[in-house]
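Consider the tokenized backbone below.
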């Protein structure tokens, strides 16, 4: 049987976040058994060299430059992998890496305007620099991919919007500011809040999200911020929020929904090993990857 090809790309950078300790996420996961489990599931696995900053930023402008440069390299790598018909696994790093991941995917597709994305997160990540209370870029990738924000980030790979509002769905939201919600409401982005999950169940919400982003035979991917999961199950994150998705429910929902057709790949972000407990969060991240791909 012909083996399916997986390209794993580590983004070992944390300068988009306030808690700058999630740069070890790719190393933590690589040191566990993700590769062996994917190979056992008949994948041919390649790891790229981890993308790392070439220096520690010394100012806000320098931080923006470092993040932009790293996202450009990440976009180059995801573009190359998708062009070669490989599925991708991107392991961050803070969630600003999504700007690079999905900009590269967008540029590699023959019909990029049909690209869909399921964004699983406690937060909306839909600030611009003008609306952000903190100025942290990991709170901006959704807005950036929709075409709102700093040109150094919206212009990676191309100046086009990387995803159209009707092809995006947020899941697990429970912490956000009014400006973020106003932007997404204005654009008509589909959002499933934790109240919706409590009411409908996660299996059904993920099904609805998948149907929404993959309609019309769209190619699509998943971006998973581990803080979407309840801190009791995923303590190793930088921005924990109570009353989150249970780890068991997430893996069950990802297995329940078939991601075989038109699935580009999955991105895992914000694994903070210094806050983890005996690799509990890292193991959960690996199980999420396996649930989507195998």
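A designed sequence for it:
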């Amino acid at each position: 049987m012909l083996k399916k090809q997986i390209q794993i790309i580590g983004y070992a950078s944390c300068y988009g976040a306030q808690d700058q300790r999630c740069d070890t996420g790719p190393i933590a996961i690589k040191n566990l058994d993700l590769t062996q489990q994917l190979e056992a599931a008949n994948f041919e696995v390649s790891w790229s060299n981890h993308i790392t900053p070439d220096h520690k930023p010394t100012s806000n402008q320098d931080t923006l430059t470092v993040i932009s440069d790293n996202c450009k390299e990440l976009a180059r790598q995801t573009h190359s992998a998708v062009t070669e018909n490989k599925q991708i696994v991107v392991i961050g790093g803070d969630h600003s890496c999504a700007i690079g991941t999905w900009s590269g995917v967008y540029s590699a597709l023959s019909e990029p305007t049909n690209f869909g994305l399921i964004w699983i997160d406690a937060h909306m990540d839909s600030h611009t620099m003008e609306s952000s209370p903190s100025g942290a870029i990991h709170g901006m990738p959704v807005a950036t991919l929709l075409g709102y924000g700093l040109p150094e980030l919206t212009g990676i790979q191309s100046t086009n919007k990387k995803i159209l509002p009707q092809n995006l769905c947020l899941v697990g939201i429970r912490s956000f500011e009014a400006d973020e919600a106003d932007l997404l409401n204005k654009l008509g982005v589909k959002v499933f809040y934790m109240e919706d999950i409590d009411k409908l169940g996660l299996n059904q919400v993920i099904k609805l999200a998948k149907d929404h982003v993959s309609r019309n035979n769209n190619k699509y991917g998943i971006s998973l911020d581990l803080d979407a999961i309840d801190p009791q199950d995923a303590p190793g994150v930088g921005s924990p929020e109570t009353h989150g998705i249970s780890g068991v429910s997430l893996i069950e929902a990802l297995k329940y929904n078939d991601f075989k057709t038109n699935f580009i790949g999955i991105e895992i972000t914000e694994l903070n090993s210094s806050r983890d407990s005996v690799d509990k969060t890292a193991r959960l991240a690996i199980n999420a990857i396996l649930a989507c791909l195998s």
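The chain has eleven helices and eight strands.
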